[in-house]
Specification:
- The structure is a single chain.
- The chain is an alpha/beta fold.
- The chain contains 10 helices and 12 strands.
- It has a domain of 214 residues: Metallo-beta-lactamase, Chain A (4-Layer Sandwich).
- Strands 1-2-3-4-5-6-7 form a 7-stranded mixed beta sheet. The chain has a 5-stranded mixed beta sheet with strand order 8-9-10-11-12, with helices on one face.
- It binds zinc ion.
- The site of zinc ion has 7 residues, from helix 4.
Amino acid sequence: MLRTTMYCFSLLIFLLSWACVPIYARNRVHQLAPDVYYWAGDLSKHEQTNVGFVVFRDYVLVIDANFPWAAEHIIEDIKTITPKPIRFVFNTHYHADHIMGNSVFAARGAAIVSTDDLALELGNKGMADVLEQTKIKLHHLELPSVRFSDRLVFDDGQHRVELVKYGRAHTKGDGVAYLPAEGVVFVGDLAVNWTHGNNLSDQDVSYIGWIRALDNIANLHLKTVIPAHGDLGDVDLLRRQREFISDMWKQVKQGLKAGKSPAELKKTLQFTQHGIFARDPRETEDMVESMCERARTQPDWNSGPGESE
Ligand SMILES: [Zn+2]
């Protein structure tokens, strides 16, 4: 009897504590491993970036800052998981949906972390990029204050997160957050898993660099891949993203070298075999157009037409 009463009491406490967690936190925070979580982005709310967070012994490290309005929700949701302070926010690349929330986290005491190249890119292109993408004129852009060239490791004996540079790829300064013990990697926009395609249009994109980055990341010990947009996946997501970019690069190069116009290539090239990556025909056309615009500036543009990539 006492045991039944205790059980009911415990269940009641559990249900009450669960009821106190805001509904959006329940739906949006997903646990990947002990102390390792991601907060699911939602395009319909203009909060499209998946945001990771790792609870270390004394602090929380957040991966990507999303938009400012999303950052407020993320901070509240993290509080439902842990009272520890958010000390560091890592930006995977400089695009607006990954960095605009920096100022919200910084105002609460977090230091922003990135590759050196990302910090330069954000300083040079960030304001204009934010304005172009969001129509919001920023008065203050929070730049990373902790910067690294190739690798920065957070390791407190309980958790280890390796921030590793893989740019130039999607942008100049791309980095990923890799948790070797858990086999988890947060890849930013190096791979996505939604029907809206990937953004291939950054002025410093390197398609070959991107393909190589995906190959190198796929060689890590991995169980879970968290793309910045869409559902989580595994190493197969990296391979499929790689094949899509590689196939588009090959077809675009061959087409341009055969004298076809970008407009012609937009209408004729076929990528439907790549499933989710090419599900939206308009997005796919935009990607072909971007690639055509940048093709001649790419490092391997001058290799022969029959080359592998
Ligand atoms: Zn993004």
